[in-house]
Amino acid sequence: MMKRVALPGSDLAVSAIGYGTADLGVGMTDGDVASLLGAFRDAGGTFVDTAHVYAFWTSAGAGSSECAIGRYLAANRWDDVVVATKGGHPGLPGYRRTDRWLDPGRIHADIEDSLGRLRVDRIDLYYLHRDDLDLTVDEIIDALNEEIRAGTIGAIAASNWSVARLQAANDYAQARGLQGFVASQIEWSLASKRPAEPKPRGDQTVVAQEQDIEFHRRSGLPLCAYASTARGFFAPDSKNPSGYDNEASRTRRERARELAAQKGCTPTQIALAWLMNQSFPCIPLTGTVSIEHLRENLGAAAVTLTDSERDYLAYQEN
To answer: How many CA within 13 A on the CB side of residue 153?
Structure first.
């Protein structure tokens, strides 16, 4: 049984590793989807992460991931699964949105779409995929709590939000007895990466920096880490993905290889274990559609690191 991680402020407990499904259902049969989700489930996984926007960039179109998960859940009983989806993404070429992608009407419409695609009556954990700085956190939290009261969603979380906005949103919720964000999803891995480049209004992602990590240490808010394997940076055949090829990352990879040899596991498993062995709850999301890679990544749940090993891996450039 894979360890469970509680999400404080909710009744949810999720598997220590989550399954990210951006490409699920794209160019694959329902049998392929069942094999992947079945392998995740058999390893003790319970936390499935998707989004309203996923696969809009393919011929399958937006919603393909949610629909594939919905078909699987309709055909397979999975009592302890926690389904998280994301809505409120700004418009992109091929994904039309209004200028106010987090207004109450847009949030409600995205939730209704996702409920239908997933074939569920309530979404366990609902993320806002991006922030909209033109709206106050008060307006956003109020709208999400209306959905909670209506029973369409269970708990709420933020994806690609800044520390300042996360703190302000949860302070507002606490002061008014409302539900705040119970998790934050940003990009983080053992590899070192510079902050995300500024994007057009709304489509801003967040790559974890020291201020983000310090916020999670201080607050205890769970961090769900996407791109948790640094897009294959720790694999034996790594092509050094863009953004990760620097002195700190290369040194961390060498140290991961060293510890992997000592522990009888792979460097990728060490990189994932590093995330799971932080001083605050951190849940890496693995997004592969390869059964072999999925099983390797899930094997990281059995790898433990001492505090000194964790600190040894986190090499910093001078």
So the answer is: 29
Q: Which two tokens stand for residue 183?
A: 């998790």
Distance CA 300, CA 156 (A): 27
Total domain count for the chain? Answer: 1
Write out pLDDT tens, residues 100-123.
889 999 999 999 999 999 999 999
Is residue 250 very low, low, confident or very high in pLDDT (cuts 50, 70, 90)? Answer: very high
Nearest-angstrom CA–CA distance, 229 and 287: 9
Q: Give the Cα separation of 24 and 197 in Å (integer).
A: 27
Name all contacts of 306-315 with Cβ < 8 Å and 24+ positions apart. 309/259, 310/274, 310/277, 310/278, 312/255, 312/259, 313/190, 313/252, 313/255, 313/256, 313/259, 313/270, 313/274, 314/190, 314/252, 314/274, 315/248, 315/251, 315/252, 315/255
Interval 254-263 mean pLDDT: 98
Q: Do the domain assignments include residue 143? A: yes
**Number of CB atoms found within 10 A of residue 210's CB:** 8
Q: For residue 180, is it within any domain?
A: yes
Q: Which domain holds residue 48?
A: 4-313
pLDDT of residue 255: 98
Q: Which uninterrupted H or E stretch holds 251? A: helix 247-263
Task: State how far the Cα of 253 lies from the Cα of 271, in Å rounded to an integer.
Answer: 8
Give the CB-side neighbour count of residue 119, counting CA atoms within 13 A. 12
Residue 89 to residue 153: CA distance in whole angstroms: 17
> Looking at the domain assignment, is residue 237 inside a domain?
yes
Residues 36-65: tens digit of each pLDDT? 999 999 999 999 999 998 987 887 778 999
Amino acid at 132: D
- Give per-residue pLDDT as tens, 201-240: 777 899 999 999 999 999 999 999 999 999 999 999 888 8
d(CA 196, CA 207): 6
As given in the structure block, the two tokens for residue 181 are 């964000």
CATH at residue 143: 3.20.20.100
Average pLDDT over residues 62-86: 96
Q: Is residue 318 part of a domain?
A: no
